[in-house]
Amino acid sequence: MTSNETQQPGHNICPLCGKVLTSGEEKSKFVEVSIDRASYRFDSKDCAIMFKRFLSVYGDDFKRYSGQHQYISDPFWDRAIPKEDELKEIEAEQLKNISDTVHEKSTRDIVVISDALEIQQLGFDLLRSAKEDIAIIFSTGNAFLRQVRIGGIQLLEEVKKARKDLSIRIITPTNEDIRKISVDLKRRLGVDVKHIVEFMQSKITLVMVDRKYSLAVELKDDTIDSIYEAAGLGIYSNHKSTVLSYITIFESLWKELELNEHVANLCEQLRFREKMQTEFINIAAHEFRAPIQPILGLAEILKAREKVDIEKQQELLTVIIRNAKRLKTLTENILDITRIENRPLILHQELLNIEDVISDAIQDVESQSEYKRSIVKIIYNPSGINDKIGLVRADKGRIIQVISNLLDNAVKFTEEGIIYINLDKKANENEIVVSIVDNGIGISSDIEPLLFTKFMTKANKGTGLGLYISKSIIDAHGGTIWAENNKKGKGATFRFSLPIESNNRIITN
Q: Which CATH topology does 103-238 take?
């Protein structure tokens, strides 16, 4: 064909790409479209869409260039900017093409496809047509990764973003790379991925869409990176019994994997609880032994000596009393655990000024020998909350217990420095917040998620019950307790909130 020939309806060359068109018995190999009362034959629907795109932008100028057979190398290719309404038209036609492709297959119950490229294209078309749910079983981890390489997983991302309510579930064998991709899909798109172990693998990859269509692809050679060489036959079906059979397999496997995950989580929890209880028994035995030994030893000294001067006697009795109190605290903590787990914590509530409660708790801690032996100072910064606004209905002894636990904890992990206690009112003015800020070693990342659970401690002494009991007390008061490492400087901050007593909110015993 020469450059001075003009396009005529029925010509055997595509006016856009210049490809020679077949005719006769193979008429279906080209696309015939009527544009501006003229008939054109194109090599594909994409050529027809692009031709109309150029025509709408450049009109008669484009007809002149197309008549000279510049095809897609002409200068319009790089300069054509479609209008907004035409973009919508193009997108609509592309979606119609996908729908037509799926519809063409859907007119038959089962279609066997041997061409790997056609199998992949049909799979992509099915995913794009999904309206409600997509369920996929990959036969091997390599099958999953091959789809990542050719854009199949990225296509799921596009489909999910376009249809927010679309459910996408994937079952696949796993490795480190697949695990990372799975976590990312779950985090960004809410795509659920469950993993099967090697012995559960089949040699078939299944794709099911909207519980209406299925595509089963056999795996010919899993060692090949190219999906077009790795895949064997593909079987498309819209036959209800066939698709539902595949769905039943998927749902059964999905529920089994959910059950396995649940059992694995329970086993992990049991192992953790067993470890914590073993550690608690060892810690508790040590904690009980520590105060018992001086009590017994000093009592024996007092008994053995007939004459002990009053000053020495007072010194020994002070040590005995201090250790007896420590033993009493340990016993009460263990009893508290039993009360908390077996029934709701009983509170003896009264109307309190929280500032008075904080002051009492500070005095209790400062009177302890552990505090006196430390080089730590406690500074209380009251917020200026007046008596009326700072009233809470609470169990005084229990709130003192919470503040004392938090202060003991701060002293324990602070070698030297200052511990600040702050009292503030929340923005909504319905709660007060007590903060204990230290400059100690901070909260270790491995225990932070379990900070308020039983037996959790990083200290050389202590049962790991204080924070758990404190949380239970604050929860029973309708408040909240939390902790975080300080953003500036070192150390950690523990906070708890309590509802403020008001005429509109009366908390009864």
A: Endonuclease; Chain A (3.30.870)
DSSP state of 3: T
**Using CA atoms, how far apart are residues 274 and 284, in angstroms rounded to an integer?**
15
Per-residue pLDDT of the chain (509 residues; tens, 9 = 90+): 333 334 444 457 777 777 777 655 444 567 888 877 778 888 787 787 777 777 766 666 566 555 444 444 344 444 444 555 555 555 555 555 555 555 555 555 788 888 888 888 899 999 999 999 999 999 888 889 988 888 888 888 889 888 888 999 999 998 889 999 999 888 888 889 998 876 555 688 899 999 999 999 988 888 888 877 888 889 999 888 889 889 998 999 899 999 988 998 888 888 877 776 776 666 666 667 767 877 888 888 777 776 667 777 887 887 788 778 777 777 777 777 766 766 667 788 888 888 888 888 888 777 776 666 677 888 887 655 555 556 888 988 889 889 988 988 888 888 788 889 988 876 566 888 999 999 888 888 777 777 887 766 665 555 667 888 889 889 989 999 999 998 877 889 999 999 886 543 433 33
The DSSP H or E segment spanning 405 is helix 396-412
d(CA 106, CA 87): 28
Cα 469 to chain center, whole Å? 28
Q: Could you give phi then psi for residue 435, rounded to 5 degrees?
A: -120, 135
Round to whole Å and give the CA distance between 138 and 144. 6
Q: How far apart are CA 1 and CA 218, in angstroms?
A: 46
Structure tokens of 10? 């029925």
CATH architecture of 280-341: Orthogonal Bundle (1.10)
Could you tell me which residues come within 8 angstroms of residue 359 by beta carbon, excluding any fewer than 6 positions away? Answer: 380
Helix (H) or strand (E) holding 160: helix 152-162
Main-chain dihedrals φ then ψ at residue 413, nearest 5 degrees: -105, 10
Scanning the structure block, which residue is given the tokens 């008669």? 60
What separation in angstroms does the CA of 165 have from each of 39, 43, 169? 42, 37, 13
Q: Give all strands (DSSP E) within 335-473, no chain letters.
A: 350-353, 375-381, 391-394, 416-425, 431-437
Which architecture characterizes domain 350-499 according to CATH? 2-Layer Sandwich (3.30)
Kindly report the number of other CB atoms within 10 A of residue 259's CB atom: 10
The answer for 190, left when phi > 0, alpha when psi is -120 to 50, beta otherwise, is: left
- Spell out a b/e string for 188-198, using b for 16 or more CB atoms within 10 Å of the CB, else e: ebebebbbbee
- State whether residue 297 is helix, strand or coil: helix
Comparing C-alpha atoms, which of 42, 4, 35, 51 is closest to residue 20? 42
Domain boundaries in the chain?
Answer: 1-82, 103-238, 280-341, 350-499
